[in-house]
């Protein structure tokens, strides 16, 4: 049972503790049997993108054959392998302890932490059993959802008794017995079932307005960086260095800022302070090359007067 309630923006509050269960099995028949979790969008495997989105989970369980991933997770398989999403979810729930569980498929290229926080906040503010995303057509996405773990376990036990097991049961048999609320989010709920979906996702991240954030996220994943910094500040620094010194100064300066902050073992504040100092230096450098504070014509490239 689903309530047509919802909240595009939830009230602020403390972060809600949760565990995550990611279903990464399935035959991917509409993709010709391809390894869907391993398909890349923006240079990152779909599974890794989902794992980045739920990095705030206390415990993350992936139901699939183990593989290399962007961060450590716990692995489990449904019994028997290939028994379907309900059996896979039950297997994942065995390894978590939090009162709330975020349940995700492994094919969500645009899922982010903010969408999960909205789901958890919506669930926190009601007595519903769960909160799920809906797409642009209003279609519910039960594998982009936050649930009360106790409610899932209760209904899974009931299904096991009623059907003698969970093998082959469709997910709607489980979610149909739960009281759910809907959170519209066409982007975060977008999943990749076909090659056209993959192509559309790959094209979208290269659009102006998305490509820079996507690239920064990909680089951070590749390098194992979790630090969040103000990219606008770094771009301003790069602009100042390129304009006031020379174009190659832009990437070299931003590298040195990052190195300086890392050497100190500090967080975003250290990056901001190093960027401030470097930006001020670039402006002084430009000022000198334009004539100096006293209006003289000497610059870095000027010959010695003596």
Secondary structure layout:
Layout: E1 2-3, E2 19-23, E3 40-41, E4 44-45, H1 46-53, E5 60-63, E6 74-76, H2 85-93, E7 100-105, H3 113-124, E8 130-134, E9 140-148, H4 149-163, H5 171-175, E10 180-184, H6 195-204, H7 211-223, H8 231-244, H9 249-263, H10 268-289
Parallel strand pairs: 1-10, 2-5, 2-7, 5-6, 8-10
Antiparallel strand pairs: 3-4, 7-9, 8-9
Report what the structure shows.
- The chain is elongated, with a radius of gyration of 25 Å.
- An eight-stranded mixed sheet has the order 1-10-8-9-7-2-5-6, with helices on both faces. Strands 3-4 form a two-stranded antiparallel sheet.
- It has helices at 46-53, 85-93, 113-124, 149-163, 171-175, 195-204, 211-223, 231-244, 249-263, 268-289, and strands at residues 2-3, 19-23, 40-41, 44-45, 60-63, 74-76, 100-105, 130-134, 140-148, 180-184.
- A hairpin with a 5-residue loop joins strand 8 (130-134) and strand 9.
- It contains ten helices and ten strands.
- The chain folds into two domains: 2-204, Spore Coat Polysaccharide Biosynthesis Protein SpsA, Chain A, CATH 3.90.550.10; 227-289.
- Mean pLDDT is 86; it is low at 7-11 and 295-306.
- It has 306 residues and is an alpha/beta fold.
- Residues 208-289 form the DUF6457 domain.
- Residues 286-306 are annotated as: Disordered.
- Residues 292-306 have a biased composition (Gly residues).
- InterPro entries: DUF6457, MobA-like_NTP_Trfase, Molybde_CF_guanTrfase, Nucleotide-diphossugar_trans.
- Keywords: Cytoplasm, GTP-binding, Magnesium, Metal-binding, Molybdenum cofactor biosynthesis, Nucleotide-binding, Nucleotidyltransferase, Transferase.
């Amino acid at each position: 049972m689903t309530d047509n309630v919802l909240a595009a923006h939830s009230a602020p509050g403390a972060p809600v503790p949760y565990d995550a269960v990611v279903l990464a099995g399935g035959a991917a028949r509409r993709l010709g049997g391809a390894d869907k979790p391993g398909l890349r969008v923006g240079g990152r495997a779909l599974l890794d993108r989902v794992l980045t989105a739920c990095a705030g989970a206390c415990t993350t369980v992936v139901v699939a054959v183990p593989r290399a991933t962007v961060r450590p997770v716990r692995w489990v398989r449904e019994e028997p392998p290939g028994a379907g999403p309900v059996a896979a979810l039950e297997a994942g729930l065995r390894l978590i302890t939090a009162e709330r569980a975020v349940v995700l498929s492994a094919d969500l290229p645009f899922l982010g932490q903010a969408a999960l926080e909205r789901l958890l906040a919506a669930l926190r503010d009601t007595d519903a059993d769960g909160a799920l995303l809906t797409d642009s057509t209003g279609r519910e996405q039960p594998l982009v959802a936050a649930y009360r773990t106790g409610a899932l376990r209760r209904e899974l036990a009931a299904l096991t008794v009623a059907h003698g097991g969970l093998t082959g049961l469709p997910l709607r048999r489980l979610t149909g017995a739960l009281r759910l609320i809907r959170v519209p989010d066409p982007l975060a709920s977008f999943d990749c079932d076909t090659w056209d979906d993959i192509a559309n996702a790959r094209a979208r991240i290269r659009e102006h307005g998305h490509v820079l954030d996507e690239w920064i996220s990909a680089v951070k994943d590749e390098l194992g960086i979790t630090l969040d910094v103000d990219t606008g500040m770094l771009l301003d620094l790069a602009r100042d260095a390129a304009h006031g010194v020379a174009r190659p100064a832009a990437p070299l300066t931003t590298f040195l800022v990052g190195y300086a902050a890392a050497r100190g073992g500090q967080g975003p504040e250290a990056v901001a302070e190093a960027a401030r100092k470097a930006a001020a230096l670039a402006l002084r450098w430009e000022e000198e090359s334009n004539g100096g504070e006293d209006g003289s014509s000497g610059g870095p490239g000027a010959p010695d007067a003596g």
